[in-house]
Amino acid sequence: MRRRLELGKTLSRIDFLMLISVFFLMFLGVAFIYSSGISSTGINVSNEYQKQLIRIISGLFILLFFSIYDIEKIKNFAIPIYLTLLAILIYTRINGSTVNGAKSWLYIGSFGFQPSEFTKIATILLLAKYLDDNKKEIYRLKVFIISFGIIALPFSLILIQPDMGTASVYIPIFIAMIFIGGCNIKHLIYLLLLGGLTLFFTMLPGWEEFILQSKNPFVTILNNKNLLLYLIGSFSFSILLSIIGYFYFKKEYFYWVIYAFSIIIVSLVISYIARTYVLKEYQIMRLIVFMNPQVDPLNFGWNIIQATTAVGSGGLMGKGFLQGTQSHYQFLPEQSTDFIFSILSEELGFIGAILVFGSFFIILIRGILILTYAKDNFSVIVGAGIVGMIFFHVVQNIGMNIGLMPITGIPLFFLSYGGSSLWTALAGIGILQGIYQRRYRN
């Protein structure tokens, strides 16, 4: 009787609904990685599905470790783990292997991995530690800036690989964690507006050249360094006058002028640096073809056109498992990784897509509920970062498969072929399970 009670108590501490959803997605992943390796003649030309099975088995040990190991003990190692992975990112940028245009891989013999994936968990742990240690002062601008700096370091190192897709994941992680931590909303809105305006200014010249195909006066300013400096100088002078006015007259509208104009200035500077020194041509073209794939249908627009064609051709019930044409005739690029959702949707149709949506919905909802069960602030913030990470991967990957998001090369957690992303996702699920298991602790 006692053993039954202990077994029941142990089982009650496991979020089975989340785990069932994760295992279901991994099962679908292996099935459609296998499907992606079938040629038009019906012959299997890839052993990726076998490798993925091995990665799943090894990943279960990672999930188990993070489920059992107390998150509070992991907190004590957050700084050395973070610094170690930053050092590995620097080494990767210098001596790493280039795959798909990004020097983001390290190889030990035939075993390859992406340190940028593991850095997500390390960054979440350190940021949660910092926010928890400074929870009484989290409303201050200083804490917000330092918190963003924790994210900015790995973000910058990954961006220069260049891997814009993986780097972009760090932004929603930061937003989720700083919001749950209790930051000043004005600081968060400032960051969101700055990011949106920077993206807008970055895309504008390409929009003029490839889509508008006529001269726009404002874009002319953006492309002319001297005119751009004059514009920035004008805004800067306005800010200076507003600062003087704020101190002399104590009127709040001076504060909001400084707030708005500083967003414009910083976004202009960052967008110019990004276009000139950071972003590669193919990365800018990905943003352009997102607005109109027909700009370059046989090159940069090919991926999004073929992906949306595959999804649309599946209809309600799909063409049937192993019956897809887009994948088996090799129309889809990176079909076992970035575009696994397109293969699934073509063969299982709308019903299959709904099953995937439903599984991720369960994982995310259970993740959010686990935050309400957590008994300490550190666990809540860590959980928020993991939920934010999973949410962005789902929205971005599925979005780019159906033409609602630009193509960035972000894998779909649990389904896409690859070990680094799978292990990162399973580590995140393990941490959430660990938080759930300790929900009754005082």
Description:
This protein is an all-alpha fold. It has one domain (14-437). The chain has helices spanning 2-12, 16-36, 48-68, 71-75, 78-95, 115-133, 141-159, 164-181, 185-212, 217-223, 225-249, 252-278, 281-291, 302-313, 325-328, 340-373, 377-401, 419-437, and strands at 97-99, 102-108, 111-113. A hairpin with a 2-residue loop joins β1 and β2 (102-108). α9 packs across α12 and α11 runs antiparallel to α12 (252-278). It is globular and about 75 Å long.
Summarize the structure.
The chain has 442 residues and is mainly α. The chain has helices spanning 2-12, 16-36, 48-68, 71-75, 78-95, 115-133, 141-159, 164-181, 185-212, 217-223, 225-249, 252-278, 281-291, 302-313, 325-328, 340-373, 377-401, 419-437, and strands at residues 97-99, 102-108, 111-113.
What distinguishing features does this structure have?
442 residues, globular
- Averaged pLDDT: 86
In terms of DSSP E residues, the strand content is under 5%
Note poorly predicted spans.
4-8
The N- to C-terminal Cα distance equals 26 Å
Determine the number of helices (DSSP H or I, runs of at least 4 residues). 18
Spatial order of the strands in the main sheet?
1-2-3
Largest sheet: 3 strands, antiparallel
Helical residues, percent: over 70%
Radius of gyration, CA atoms, in whole angstroms: 24 Å
* Global outline: globular
Q: Would you report the number of β strands?
A: 3
Secondary-structure element series: HHHHHEEEHHHHHHHHHHHHH
Number of structural units classed as domains: 1
* Subunit organisation of the chains: single chain
Structural class: mainly alpha
